[in-house]
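All the exercises in this workshop are built on plain-text protein records. A record pairs a protein's sequence with a compact description of its fold. The structure tokens are whole numbers drawn from a learned vocabulary of backbone shapes. Once this layout is familiar, the rest of the handout is easier to follow. An example says more than a description, so a record of this kind follows.
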Amino acid sequence: ADTDADTDADTDADPVHSVDGPDADGVTTWVLDVSSPDNWVYASLDDNTASGTADEWTISMRRYVFELNGGINGDGNVSATYDERSFDEAGSTPETGWMTDEADADADGAPELAFDSWYDYDTSTHVLTPKSRTWYVTSQNDATYALEIVSYYDESGDSGTFTLRTKPVLDRRNFDGVVDASDADNPVYLNLHHLEVLAAPTDPSTDLGWDLSLARTTLRVNGGVSGAGAGMAYTYEDSMTWEMVDTAPTDGWSTDAEPTSSYSDGTALATWYDYDISTHTVSASGRVHAILDADGHAWKLQVQDWDDGTLTIRVGRLLEAE
């Protein structure tokens, strides 16, 4: 059996790939012939396809090397990360740690590839063994997948055949943004995914395309008196840090309501800031909030900074309470 992953020059002029799935659990099993030292195999996790053509692709493989359709190797904005959960346990992505393929940063003449660390190498047997970890990949269409590298060898023990498992998982990436909401008369409307700034809707009270609006100190959810969506909010205790919050609360939610006094705007996110009555200054409280978007999906939100109507914000999806 061929165990030399680094020097094998055997090629298959017409490589055969097997893509099986998704099964009832959403898992797709890939068996990919990557034995050619010259030709890349391109896999689309969105389409469950593999070919030698770089059309719609997420990851590519040649021998033991993975490349992403992002960074220096593509324009698909694909990124990756990993954690120590098993593939079967993985139902959501990590929040942070995302990386893509980058140019050489350590002067060794090789680019810094996101998947560089996928294996352990035995110098005595020259065998590559996948590390016990699950990878997570964003696709060229911004979907998120868990990926397990099962093996780099075929049933005969020859190198150059990847067996992979993939499945879609909940996207829990953190998104950070700076939003200029300094014009009190012209709110800024956001989609929480990527904190995308939207064109102002013709009728915000009926439009379900926005999740959060900002106008100076007023943050509104798409719910209650502010919109027709499922928007609600919940404020955690001051002792709860961003890292401690990962699951949506089961109760205690509120939504935007008509103000009950001149000292309140009735919004469910009113505690995002602190006001100093002696200096008449506003500052971000740093409190962490749970928020339901217009479709009822749970997120966490934190305003990290305020500068005269310009807010620094981060958001991330929450796990649903069981």
About this structure: Residues 76 and 94 are 20 Å apart (CA to CA). The chain has two domains: 18-168, 175-317. Confidence is low (pLDDT under 50) at residues 1-12.
